Amino acid sequence: MAAAAAVGSGPGDSPEGPEADAPERRRKAHGMLKLYYGLSEGEAAGHSAGPDPLDPTDLNGAHFDPEVYLDKLRRECPLAQLMDSETDMVRQIRALDSDMQTLVYENYNKFISATDTIRKMKNDFRKMEDEMDRLATNMAVITNFSARISATLQDRHERITKLAGVHALLRKLQFLFELPSRLTKCVELGAYGQAVRYQGRARAVLQQYQHLPSFRAIQDDCQVITARLAQQLRQRFREGCSGAPEQAECVELLLALGEPAEELCEEFLAHARGRLEEELSSLETELGPSPPAPDVLEFTDRGGNGFVGGLCQVAAAYQELFAAQGPTGTQKLAAFARELGGRYFVLVERRLAQEQGGSDNSLLVRALDRFHRRLRAPGALLAAAGLSESATEIVERVARERLSHHLQGLRAAFLSCLTDVRQALAAPRLAGKEGPSLAELLANVASSILSHIKASLASVHLFTAKEVSFSNKPYFRGEFCSQGVREGLIVGFIRSMCQTAQSFCDSPGEKGGATPPALLLLLSRLCLDYETATISYILTLTDEQFLVQDQSPVTPVSTLCAEARETARRLLTHYVKVQGLVISQMLRKSVETRDWLSTLEPRNVRAVMKRVVEDTTAIDVQVGLLYEEGVRKAQSSDSSKRTFSVYSSSRQQGRYAPSYTPSAPMDTNLLSNIQKLFSERIDVFSPVEFNKVSVLTGIIKISLKTLLECVRLRTFGRFGLQQVQVDCHFLQLYLWRFVADEELVHLLLDEVVASAALRCPDPVPMEPSVVEVICERG
């Protein structure tokens, strides 16, 4: 039996031997042992690899027949295979014997333990049978004695029961006769609760037997004492010197004495109103102008502990005392709580409004959390009063105001950055020293704005923290994240930044005239950087921090990027116009203030042309700090000499030939107009691309077009024409390298000289070699 029990324990038991050495080997040995004893045919069949469990030639099958197996081997296998089978079978038998011995050794302790357990069970069962027999005998004796006692005391039991009933009745009568004196004593001692309980116990009996004279006298005395008791309770209740629990006890006793509940309800609410109004007055005093206002967290704690705690006590006591009033009583309590709660909310909003100027939201959010958390209890008690909803609305309004405040803060920070840039651009000129480069200023502005945006996001993210009680409200899970933070704060600031930048693109006579051109260039690059990377980064950061669950439509990233790119384009275009206007003003004044008819023979290049080249070079350096070079058309190897060759071409020689006759102007006009028909049209205000070459090309086109129009309005003498010829050649020597297509400069300067020739009565050009010498010397 012990062996069977040990075997039946199966492979699931944990033997005490070295189990970790060969688990596969142990499981195999257990399966063989079960197969050997025939205890689990299903498992043995599971180990068999044969397809048919009834096959008599299957060594692992339950129906194995040695004779059939040997006959099959002798018929099918040669001698060598028979010898190999014998060798293999001997090896398997030895391995099986070894495994079985190992299994027995490993479970030896279990076999011994199972044998001892069975032996002890036999001894214990013999003792238990003897004890059960003795118990049955004792129970029979006890039952016999109980029956004999019950039969003997039957008559006495009935008499005792009658006497006990009479005794109880006498005690009740004694209580009734002593009731007036007991009530008087309780009233004198102030034990009003005990007196009311005495009255409640005797009320029904006195009412039932009031037709008997003795009981009628007791009832009259009790009514007089009860009236005096009710008067004292009312006096104590109306004095209001005790706390809310004591007053609630007074009302409960008065209700137990049969006082009208409607009247007590009104008095209870009136006394509660007085106490709560004192709390409100205390809070309002703290908001006064003379004493310093307490910390917002301290203010909400005082309001929560004082007013809100008192309101909860009043609501709980009212519902417990006047539950029989039904819906009418509930409506009175709801109106009472709604009125006082509204006054409390006004005070809280006044205090919260004082915190709107700060930049840190941590203290404000903690105060709102405690304010909202404390109002959940009265909100649950008085659902009809709508206190929780009103508290949530206040928190939402504060959150919206904080978003608006942070938006204004971001706008102010952006304007402050622009002011710093203006000062940095003006300071070097005032001090006469080198200031920070535009690239450094751009990096400072971009990093400053981005840090302010991240700080604002971290600040408003406190409203959605998991530990905040109102963060699970629908508004803070949806609208606050999508429409408030993303659209109102981030998108609103980006659009405000673009609008502020575009405001610098006003007409020169207004705001734009005071804007430094370098600021326009910096803002255009800033908006372009926002379009390429910053907007996408900021919105992705916002969406990750504020998991938007609202399905309201939001502004796509592509739309904001398009707006930023358009702003950058407008700023860069305005920069080109402003810089072109500056150079144009110099050229216009130089043309209008000179007497070209009486000009001396040119000996050098005018100073204004040198200033134009210097300013253009400075602009080239300035733009190159923020924008890439751009693409230029292939340039000829003699670009610096091109102007001279143009003036010495056959067309120009024919125009300025010594054989000039009075009919020549008409022929010259006709020739010039015909040439314009076949020349490429120059768009002076063409769109500016985001590269240095395009910007410089636009500025030079505006400047040279201004020079052309000014020349057309003046009349030139011979030397005046030659001076224009020298100036244009000097400009050609330097300006061709700044534009995308050098032919553009050639055409415009050619038009300038041609227009001067048309406005000259004696158009005799200077020799090209002389022009070249003067320009090289200048």
Q: Which helices and strands appear, and what pairs or packs with what?
A:
Layout: H1 2-8, H2 23-37, H3 41-47, H4 66-76, H5 79-106, H6 108-152, H7 154-189, H8 192-208, H9 213-239, H10 244-256, H11 261-286, H12 296-321, H13 327-353, H14 362-374, H15 376-381, H16 387-431, H17 438-460, H18 474-477, H19 479-502, H20 517-545, H21 557-592, H22 607-624, H23 642-647, H24 650-655, H25 664-678, H26 692-712, H27 718-735, H28 742-758, H29 768-777
Largest sheet, in brief, is:
none
Proportion of helical residues? over 70%
| Strand tally | 0
User: Any idea what the radius of gyration is?
Assistant: 55 Å
Q: Termini separation (Å)? A: 127 Å
Mean pLDDT: 77
Low-confidence stretches: 1-21, 40-50, 641-667
Question: Treating each run of at least 4 consecutive H or I residues as one helix, how many helices?
Answer: 29
What structural class results from the helix and strand content?
A: mainly alpha
* Overall geometry: flat
Residue fraction in strands: under 5%
**Helix-strand string:** HHHHHHHHHHHHHHHHHHHHHHHHHHHHH
Region (Disordered): 1-27
InterPro entries: Cullin_repeat-like_dom_sf, Vps51
Keywords: Coiled coil, Endosome, Golgi apparatus, Lipid transport, Protein transport, Transport
Subunit structure: Component of the Golgi-associated retrograde protein (GARP) complex. Component of the endosome-associated retrograde protein (EARP) complex.
